[in-house]
Amino acid sequence: MAAMTSSARPLLNRRLAEFGTTIFAEMSALALSTGAINLGQGFPDTDGPEEIREAAVRALRDGRGNQYPPGPGVPELRTAIAAHQQRRYGLAYDPDTEVLVTAGATEAIAATLLALLEPGDEVIAFEPYYDSYAACIAMAGGTRVPVTLRPHHEDGGRFRLDLDELRDAVTDRTRLLLVNTPHNPTGTVLTREELAAIAELAVERDLLVVTDEVYEHLVFDDAEHLPLATFPGMRERTVSIGSAGKTFSFTGWKVGWVTGAPGLVTAVRSAKQFLTYVSSGPFQYAAAEALALPDTYFEAFRADMRAKRDLLADGLTAAGFEVFRPAGTYFITTDIRPLGESDGFAFCRALPERAGVVAIPNAVFYDHREAGAPFVRFAFCKRTDVLEEAAKRLGTLRG
User: Fold this and answer.
1) Beta-carbon neighbour count of residue 51 at 10 Å?
2) pLDDT at residue 315 above 90?
3) In what order do the strands lie in the sheet with 174-180?
4) With CB atoms counted within 10 Å of each terminal CB, which end of the chain scores lower, N or C?
5) Which of 259, 269, 268, 398 is nearest to 340 (CA)?
């Protein structure tokens, strides 16, 4: 019998050929095999508020969400999301037509890009960027166009956006801008001036904008999170993405959401219904209660993470890294060149054996790998005693 002609063709389709096992899986496996402290993957090592966990248990026992919830999300959560956007930012959304619940922010990103892109459309994203951006753009048949954030040492080491470079990246094929602030992995929080310039460009060139705001409640010092949808001309062209996991430390629940004008949300829902359809039934009710927590919760959460940021940042500095102290998120980017290193991949693969700590090479978040080669990311969303031990272990790198 003649061999099937498809046998010579790779099993993985060409759009995803560049995406293999994620670096997070590799580094987490290293952590397990070596017993190293895992500061690579961004998940807390303690659960969020007890009353919110009990709300999920109560929903399970009461039979709420144990069967398929409504496709757009349970009304209680959609109403809570709308109330949160109004209370925090003065953004009014109709919970019935302008809010969509998703299986975490990752599905929100995927469904949005699948809904809004045609093959060949260009998507501008700020690199380094969360690795799912590139994969989702590829699955939608789009073309990613990176605009690189670069460290400015005279500005406290902040990674900054070159607005001229952004403007030059827009072409007649540009469909949308993918904006992440507070920014993972650099910890940059875009300023009012930067956001105003992005908004002006989007209106001028009639671009759609997708904003990943999952770290909206994790901003430190003098930084302020300003949703792009609040700027003139932006509400009707912006899809805003949020997440309960990052704010309430229940990342395994996978409760995310999209807010936007009715036409945009309808488009995203059209794609989302053929991905997971629905998810996280009982957890949606708990997330609704979480969003209604008093401001004291959010203030305490932010203060706790700021203290952990400072603990790890000081330890990394003492260990010899150049540290870019983040204004947001729960990640710290470091430069390994002061340690005599220049290859982040090699450094991170050796670090568990050398110091008993796992980190992530930032180069995985770049199209321009050379631009990210000397940078390494550490997560500080861990217990204080874990961070103290990690800082102690990292101190051995100086010999």
Assistant:
1) 13
2) yes
3) 99-103, 255-259, 238-243, 208-212, 174-180, 122-127, 143-148
4) N
5) 398
User: Which residues are CB-neighbours of 104 under 8 A, at least 6 positions away?
Assistant: 243, 245, 254, 255, 256
| Alpha carbons 24 and 33: distance in angstroms, whole number | 14
Distance CA 313, CA 284 (A): 35
- Read off the amino acid at residue 195: L
State whether residue 52 is helix, strand or coil. Answer: helix
Q: Number of helices and strands (H, E) in the chain?
A: 14, 15
Beta bridge partners, 375, equal 335
Q: Which two tokens stand for residue 305?
A: 């993470």
- Residue 43's alpha-carbon distances to 54, 58, 124, 189, in angstroms, are 20, 24, 27, 20
In eight-state DSSP terms, residue 360 is E
Q: Are strands 122-127 and 174-180 parallel, antiparallel or unpaired?
A: parallel
As a whole number, the mean pLDDT across the chain is 95
Q: What 8-state DSSP symbol labels residue 363?
A: G
- Specify whether the CB–CB gap between 280 and 59 falls below 8 A: no
- Is residue 259 a contact partner of residue 240, using CB atoms and an 8 Å limit? yes
CA gyration radius for the chain? 21
Using an 8 Å Cβ cutoff, are 333 and 324 in contact? yes
Report the C-alpha gap between 335 and 344 in whole angstroms.
9
240-268 pLDDT per residue, tens: 999 999 999 999 999 999 999 999 999 99
Token pair for 243:
């997440």
User: What is the pTM for the complete model shown?
Assistant: 0.94
Mean of the pLDDT values across residues 135-148? 96
Comparing CA positions, the residue from 383, 349, 381 lying closest to residue 364 is 349
At 1, is the pLDDT very low, low, confident or very high (cuts 50, 70, 90)?
very low
CA dist 372 to 180, 333, 343, 351, Å? 18, 10, 9, 18
